[in-house]
Amino acid sequence: MTETVPAVFRFLRGDEEAFTEIVQEWQTKVYNLAWRFLGNREDAQDVTQETFLAVFRSLKGLRDPRSFSTWLYRIALNQCRAKWRQRVPELPLGDPTPGQGGDEQLEPQIVDDRVHIAVEVELKDLVCKALMSTSVEHRTAIILKEYVGLNLEEVAEVMGCPLSTAKSRLYHGLRGVQKNLRKLGARQ
C-alpha cells in the first residue's frame, strides 16, 4: 500500500489521473483474487474491470482512505460472488506444458523437466478442484489468507465477520480442501 493512500487522497481532491496509479498498483492483486475465487481467466478479467468501475464510481464516498485495501477487496469479493452466481465454475487447467507435441527425441534432462512440470500442473489442478469444491465462505477465507496474504484480522474485516468466524471458516475450509484432495486421490 505504498503509493495508494496518497493517490486516493489526490483522487478525492479532484485529480482523476491518480486513479490510474491506483489501478496500476492493485489490478494484479484484484485479478489474482478473482482468478483464485472463480477459476476462470476471462471471468477474472471481467471481475477486475467491474471492480475498478465500481471503485471509480464510489471512491468519493470512502470515509477513511487508509482503509482503501480492505474496501477494495470487499468490492472485489462482491463482484466475484455476483459472477459466481451467474454461472457454474470452470476449473483452471493450468498452462500447457511448454514444447508439447511431436515425437521428437528428447534429452533425458528435458524429459525429466517435462515430467516435473506435468506433475506440478496436475497437483495445481487437484488443489484448485479441491478448493472450488468448498463453500464460498470457506473458499473466500482460504483465498484471502493463503493466496492474497492477509492476516486473520484483515480477512475478518474484508469478509465483514468477527475474527472468530474468520478463523473458523479458514480452519473448516482447509479441512474441506484436505478432505476433497483425499477424494480426488491426492497423496498426502
Beta-strand percent range: under 5%
Q: Number of DSSP strands?
A: 0
Tally of individual domains: 2
Low-confidence stretches: 88-111
Distance between the termini: 37 Å
Average pLDDT, rounded to a whole number, is 80
Cα-atom radius of gyration: 19 Å
> Superfamily at the CATH H level of the largest domain?
RNA polymerase sigma factor, region 2, helix turn helix motif
CATH class of the largest domain: Mainly Alpha
Biggest β-sheet strands, sense, barrel: none
Classify the secondary structure makeup into a structural class.
mainly alpha
CATH level-3 fold name of the largest domain: Rna Polymerase Sigma Factor, Chain: A
CATH architecture descriptor name of the largest domain: Orthogonal Bundle
Count of individual helical segments:
8
Helix content: over 70%
Which overall shape is indicated by the principal axes computed on the Cα atoms?
globular
Give the helices and strands as they follow along the chain.
HHHHHHHH
Structural commentary:
By secondary structure, the protein is an all-alpha fold. It has two domains: 4-86, RNA polymerase sigma factor, region 2, helix turn helix motif (Rna Polymerase Sigma Factor, Chain: A), CATH 1.10.1740; 108-183, Winged helix-like DNA-binding domain superfamily/Winged helix DNA-binding domain (Arc Repressor Mutant, subunit A, Orthogonal Bundle), CATH 1.10.10.10. It has eight helices and no strands. It has helices at residues 4-12, 18-38, 41-58, 68-86, 108-132, 136-148, 152-159, 163-183. Helix 2 (18-38) packs antiparallel against helix 3 (41-58), helix 3 crosses helix 4 and helix 6 packs across helix 8. The radius of gyration is 19 Å and the shape is globular. Mean pLDDT is 80; it is low at 88-111.
